[in-house]
Amino acid sequence: MTxxxxxxxxxDDNGNAYMVDVSGKDITRxxxxxxxxxxxxxxxxxxxxxxxxxxxxxxxxxQVAGIMGAKKTSELIPMCHILLLTNAKVWFEMDRETTSITxxxxxxxxGKTGVEMEALTGVNVALLTIYDMCKAIDKxxxxxxxxxxxxxxxxxxxxxxxxxDKGYGADES
Length: 173
Prior knowledge:
The protein is an alpha+beta fold. 26% of the residues lie in helices and 28% in strands. The chain has helices at 42-49, 58-71, 73-76, 116-134; strands at residues 28-39, 85-95, 100-111, 142-152, 159-160. β2 and β3 (100-111) form a beta hairpin. α2 (58-71) packs antiparallel against α4 (116-134). It is elongated and about 50 Å long.
């Protein structure tokens, strides 16, 4: 199998999908941070904040679920490598004015490939868990703005999301 030199590195020259060979790469420290937001009604927001959801403390459960999601990324995304994560953490910022909750997931490893997908998966699973735990109150929650905020390490170098680039708007940090 030959490595494909085009921008789609998970396909060979014949268009067949494959997992990228990282065996020749150096082990380096890598970190990725992702975020995403869930917009909820005032009733849901109050129930989460007041810890009044019958299924339990929503943000604590979502925090654990997000970490578990980051750890299981290679089981969900076909071409992701199995990684030994050295750290994974999930936290939330609640915004009463917009009745929204922003989830953050930061993942670290020392390895041959990055952890962007793990951070993004962690955020998605955390947001889905909030939805699952609160859907009995209201199913109109909206998940949005899920993206990589930053990454450090690896051959492609460091990355910082700049919302002013490429028409994304200037409201993200």
